[in-house]
């Protein structure tokens, strides 16, 4: 039975999981969730993800939620095929991958989520942009990316000279950032920009980017 | 050379790392950081943690940052001694540990951080409580804990019938929550409360709780 990813391809969290499955070359099926009827806030979806969010994930009898836990599972299960995304054969390397994965989750993700909310979710609900929120969080994100710039001046990727989950987890949000007036936060930093050009041109990234553009009603009027 | 944890024992993120080291029975040294002179925002601290936050961690030549990456490293390095915190011998079990670790990071941590900021950091800086922020985030935290209540009605701990990092990562923040008027968010939920009584009475938890109380100037005037 193929792996099932429940959720729409427009979701950045679903994108994170799909990019990982593509890096591993594993077969999977995307099971659409109807947001209009809030299918994800009701049973049977809640038995897959009690927090009522996409994605939910099924591999045989195992059900999982939280995109970053799902990518870890896929990377561990298919450790020896496709891209080595966690460097599990080396304790120190895998620890550094984890540190930069946590940087994504606890430094980058916060301000990035606010920008996505401001540029895509609010307009979708016919709400105006909150300028102060945009500026505060652009500044926060800029400070994080300044640290990335320094790191990427020494290494090709965040965890070292190899592409890992620490890089992959950033990809969906940055695709969306490029559809806002804040893309310069990436392009104005030479090493961050080179890193982005590299990671966004991977076949797995192109796959999720096409998914965003194909289904994405949020993007209308925001480009 | 013993493991070094840089940061004060009053920090919840430092507490997370210490609790993990205590569960493993590993020797370590806590290296104080002088917040008054912003030692953590300058070199040489920034070479240990480029984000200028505590903790930073050293184990021989390896330096790490982000508390949840450090606890993963310690749990992997000392996989076969002390408490089995990641269930790495079973792929499905370890995936479920990861899912609940991510729930802590992406569901529980957000509203909890705001409450800590409101009840401890603002008074420390002689700033008034923002009632609306407290109420909004108490409500958010309550919704998350409602899902925990359901989970803990079926299992003794979040990831199953065994204590793991998924539980441990919650401990420092809940100790602080109990020093605020919002402790009822835990005590009013029977299964969450029983879980808290269990996990907070572990020797590793008592160790970090004593560290909070001993050094904690934030707590004065908040009890």
UniProtKB/TrEMBL annotation, chains A, B:
<dbReference type="InterPro" id="IPR040079">
    <property type="entry name" value="Glutathione_S-Trfase"/>
</dbReference>
<dbReference type="Pfam" id="PF00043">
    <property type="entry name" value="GST_C"/>
</dbReference>
<dbReference type="GO" id="GO:0006749">
    <property type="term" value="P:glutathione metabolic process"/>
</dbReference>
<dbReference type="Pfam" id="PF02798">
    <property type="entry name" value="GST_N"/>
</dbReference>
<dbReference type="InterPro" id="IPR036282">
    <property type="entry name" value="Glutathione-S-Trfase_C_sf"/>
</dbReference>
<dbReference type="InterPro" id="IPR036249">
    <property type="entry name" value="Thioredoxin-like_sf"/>
</dbReference>
<feature type="domain" description="GST C-terminal">
    <location>
        <begin position="90"/>
        <end position="218"/>
    </location>
</feature>
<protein>
    <recommendedName>
        <fullName>glutathione transferase</fullName>
        <ecNumber>2.5.1.18</ecNumber>
    </recommendedName>
</protein>
<dbReference type="GO" id="GO:0004364">
    <property type="term" value="F:glutathione transferase activity"/>
</dbReference>
<dbReference type="GO" id="GO:0005737">
    <property type="term" value="C:cytoplasm"/>
</dbReference>
<dbReference type="GO" id="GO:0043295">
    <property type="term" value="F:glutathione binding"/>
</dbReference>
<dbReference type="InterPro" id="IPR004045">
    <property type="entry name" value="Glutathione_S-Trfase_N"/>
</dbReference>
<comment type="similarity">
    <text>Belongs to the GST superfamily. Phi family.</text>
</comment>
<dbReference type="InterPro" id="IPR004046">
    <property type="entry name" value="GST_C"/>
</dbReference>
<dbReference type="InterPro" id="IPR034347">
    <property type="entry name" value="GST_Phi_C"/>
</dbReference>
<dbReference type="InterPro" id="IPR010987">
    <property type="entry name" value="Glutathione-S-Trfase_C-like"/>
</dbReference>
<dbReference type="GO" id="GO:0009636">
    <property type="term" value="P:response to toxic substance"/>
</dbReference>
<keyword id="KW-0808">Transferase</keyword>
<feature type="domain" description="GST N-terminal">
    <location>
        <begin position="1"/>
        <end position="82"/>
    </location>
</feature>
């Amino acid at each position: 039975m193929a792996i099932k990813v429940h959720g729409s391809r427009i979701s950045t969290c679903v994108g994170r999981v799909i990019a990982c499955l593509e890096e591993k070359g594993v077969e999977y099926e995307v099971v659409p969730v109807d947001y209009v009827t809030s299918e994800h806030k009701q049973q049977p979806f809640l038995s897959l993800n009690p927090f009522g969010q996409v994605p939910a994930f099924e591999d045989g009898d195992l059900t999982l939620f939280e995109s970053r836990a799902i990518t870890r599972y896929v990377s561990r299960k298919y450790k020896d095929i496709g891209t080595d995304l966690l460097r599990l054969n080396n304790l120190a390397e895998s620890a550094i991958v984890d540190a930069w994965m946590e940087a994504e989750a606890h430094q980058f993700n916060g301000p990035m989520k606010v920008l996505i909310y401001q540029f895509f979710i609010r307009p979708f609900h016919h709400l105006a942009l909150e300028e102060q929120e945009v500026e505060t969080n652009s500044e926060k994100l800029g400070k994080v990316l300044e640290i990335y710039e320094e790191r990427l001046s020494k290494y090709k990727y965040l965890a070292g000279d190899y592409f890992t989950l620490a890089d992959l987890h950033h990809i969906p949000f940055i695709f969306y950032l490029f559809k806002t007036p804040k893309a310069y936060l990436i392009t104005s930093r030479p090493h961050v920009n080179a890193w982005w050009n590299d990671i966004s041109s991977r076949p797995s990234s192109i796959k999720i980017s096409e998914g965003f553009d194909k289904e994405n009603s949020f993007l209308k009027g925001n480009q």
